[in-house]
Amino acid sequence: MKKVALLVDGENMIMAGNFSIKLEQIEEVGKKYGSLQIKEVFLPKFTSDSTMNYVTVSGFHALGYSHPDAEMMVRATEIAVSPKYNEIDIIALSTRDEDFTPVVYKIKEYNKTSVIIAVDMKFSEGLKRAADYCEFLEPKEKEV
Hints:
The protein has a single domain, classed as Rossmann fold. The protein is built from six helices and eight strands; from the N terminus they run βαβαβαβαβαβαββ. The protein has helices spanning 10-13, 23-31, 49-57, 68-81, 101-109, 125-130; strands at residues 3-9, 19-20, 35-44, 61-65, 90-94, 113-119, 133-137, 140-141. A six-stranded parallel beta sheet has the order 4-3-1-5-6-7, sandwiched between helices. It has a two-stranded antiparallel sheet with strand order 2-8. β6, α6 and β7 form a beta-alpha-beta unit. α4 (68-81) runs parallel beside α5 (101-109).
């Protein structure tokens, strides 16, 4: 069975605008590709305690940073290039952000499979073309 690292752009996926994506939806898609060895959500530094708790209770490692996108890019690159993570076959990024396109190319350069898990609204065409696989989640309207 393939081993997967699943990294989630929390700000753009679970905290964004007027749609709601659940971590369980993201995890379900990640499991289609193999065994989830790493499950991390990158969030803004001052994310609410309730959101941090939700991430943890969902079985993910919650990480708060001043620049979560940059930290997620560094982490994905680390997993792609470091011999420490040779057992990881697939790096799945849950994001809609085109800034991750160079990271996807780096993942592929190191012979790992890249998967993007996103919402099919305002999704980057460049990111879609760069990835080996793209999966689109059906958003649910946020309750008011």
